Amino acid sequence: MEFFDNHKTLFRASFLFFLTLSLFVAILPALTNQRNNAPLPGSQPLSADAEEGKKIFIANGCVACHTQQVRNIEMDKPFGSRPSISADYARDHRMSTWQNTATLMGSERTGPDLTNIGNRQPADAWHLTHLFNPRIVVKESIMPAYPWLFEIKDSAEKDDIVVSVPDNFMDGEKGKVIATKEARQLVAYLQSLKQVSLPDGRPVPIFLYPPKAADNKGAGGKNEPEGSALYATYCQSCHQPNGEGLPGAFPPLKGSAIVTNDDPSIHLSIILNGYEGRVKQGYPPMPPVGTTNNLSAAEISAIMNYERTSWGNAGKTTDAATIEKLTTTIKK
């Protein structure tokens, strides 16, 4: 009982026990995590503009509706090529001496996950149009508009970035919609959100719980992916449900000579490798949708066939076997 009666011995023993417990429970695991989860090769630190954009993202409460974590379930597959791992967040450091790390992983999916939005939507034009009014690109969107991130001027100056906005979204105002510095910084942050590949030899986490195949029987009697659903997931936000795109922002697929061409090679190449051929006409580069989202030959075939036979298009359809064969020569 002397141990409990001697306050000096008691406090020394308690302090030693606390230090030992802290070492094994907190300090050593933290050091192990840092060693095992270093930044992945290919990941880049945020630029100065992206750092400021992250603060704007936080200030406007974007994390309340958007996550930045691809879960290991099949329904998250459109958001990234693999489930997220700890190393994806290795570059998250304290924002300042008095501000803790802002990982922004989120828990609410009112809006899509943004883990890989920099690859899914790399064009400034899409992000700026979407921020000005999300309904321009996604008719059913419930995301609020952020018009205070833009100015409306009678004419654009030399260094101004003009946003293409249809007249019916201008609320009667006339002039050019100009992106402010804050809007450009927010877009810089969003474009920095890119999922990078794991080093060779490292096991890639798999997606779990795939849905049961829908009974979408094609001409051959086999279950095939549904082109309209895939188009809505990967293409519709730019080219629109009616295939007419947005004037000055995204080109139409309706009546497109590329889409309706009997030779599917160019159409496939654009889906796999992206396209910059209409930049001089004011259209932003198209991302490599098929490659970024790891779409199978059957899925790409379904998208192409939907585009080739919708909105009055009368293009020749293709099949997964043809797409798979062409992919070996087309994919970069």
Describe this structure in words.
There is one protein chain. By secondary structure, the chain is mostly helical. It has 2 domains: 48-192, Cytochrome c-like domain (Cytochrome Bc1 Complex, Chain D, domain 2, Orthogonal Bundle), CATH 1.10.760.10; 227-330, Cytochrome Bc1 Complex, Chain D, domain 2 (Orthogonal Bundle), CATH 1.10.760.10. The protein is 37% helix and 3% strand. It has helices spanning 2-5, 7-36, 48-59, 117-120, 124-132, 181-192, 227-234, 236-239, 257-260, 265-273, 289-292, 297-309, 320-330, and strands at residues 150-153, 162-163, 176-179. Strands 1-3-2 form a 3-stranded antiparallel beta sheet. The longest helix has 30 residues, at 7-36. The model is unreliable at 216-221 (pLDDT under 50).
- Structural class given helices, strands, pairing? mainly alpha
Helicity range: 25-40%
Shape: globular
Mean pLDDT: 89
Question: How would you characterize the largest beta sheet?
Answer: 3 strands, antiparallel
Stretches where pLDDT is under 50 for at least 5 consecutive residues are: 216-221
Q: Give the second-level CATH assignment, the architecture of the largest domain.
A: Orthogonal Bundle
How many distinct helices?
Answer: 13
Q: What CATH first level of the largest domain would be assigned? A: Mainly Alpha
Total domain count: 2
Spatial strand arrangement across the major sheet? 1-3-2
Alpha carbon gap, first and last residue = 77 Å
CATH topology of the largest domain, which one?
A: Cytochrome Bc1 Complex, Chain D, domain 2
Instruction: Count the beta strands.
Output: 3
- Rg calc: 25 Å
DSSP strand content: under 5%
